[in-house]
């Protein structure tokens, strides 16, 4: 059973940086895609970034590209989201998610992920 545990959230002033971690357990993640989503109250979970665990190739949603970087450490079974130049609109609960690469459906949709962490809160405020 895949288990995901996020950490690294917190309160940061505008312009600051945070690194979120997602520790994965439950077997090999070869053949998995892993993603970051975020959610604010009353809104749907929003795609942030996704990474191919095998290749380490990742992408970040266009609106955030240049400020966030997704990466993974295969040895530690941990995925990261390095966030910089944070703005108040980045405030949200951030979730990591996993799915098999050959599962059906777009990797940009939360509904197509079968495994989720509990989330970590990021608050950007002065």
State the gist of this model.
The chain contains no helices and eleven strands. The protein has strands at 3-7, 10-12, 18-25, 32-39, 46-52, 58-60, 68-73, 78-83, 92-100, 115-116, 120-124.
Gyration radius (Cα, Å) is 14 Å
Shape: globular
Stretches with pLDDT under 50, minimum 5 residues: none
Q: How many beta-strand segments?
A: 11
User: What is the percentage of strand-forming residues?
Assistant: over 45%
Can you write the helix and strand succession as a string?
A: EEEEEEEEEEE
Biggest sheet character: 7 strands, mixed
* Continuous helix count: 0
Distance between the termini: 40 Å
Mean pLDDT across every amino acid position: 96
* Helical residue percent band: under 10%
Structural class: mainly beta
Question: In words, what does this structure look like?
Answer:
By secondary structure, this protein is mainly β. It is about 0% helix and about 50% strand. It has no helices and 11 strands. The protein has strands at about 5, 10, 20-25, 30-40, 45-50, 60, 70-75, 80-85, 90-100, 115, 120-125. Strands 2, 4, 5, 6, 9, 10 and 11 form a 7-stranded mixed beta sheet that branches. A 4-stranded antiparallel beta sheet has the order 1-3-8-7, with no helix packed on it. The chain starts with a strand and ends with a strand. The mean pLDDT is about 95.
Question: Could you name the key traits of this structure?
Answer:
single chain; 126 residues; mainly beta; seven-stranded mixed beta sheet; four-stranded antiparallel beta sheet; 49% strand; globular
């Amino acid at each position: 059973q895949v288990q995901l545990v996020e950490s690294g959230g917190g309160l940061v002033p505008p312009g600051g940086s945070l690194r979120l971690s997602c520790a994965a357990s439950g077997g090999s993640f070869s053949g998995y895609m892993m993603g970051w989503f975020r959610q604010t109250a009353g809104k749907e979970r929003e795609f942030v970034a996704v990474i191919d665990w095998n290749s380490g190739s990742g992408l970040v949603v266009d609106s955030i590209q240049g400020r966030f970087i997704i990466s993974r450490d295969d040895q530690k079974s941990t995925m990261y989201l390095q966030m910089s130049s944070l703005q108040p609109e980045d405030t949200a609960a951030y979730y990591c998610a996993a799915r098999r690469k050959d599962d059906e459906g777009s990797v940009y949709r939360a509904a197509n992920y079968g495994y989720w962490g509990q989330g970590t809160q990021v608050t950007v405020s002065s």
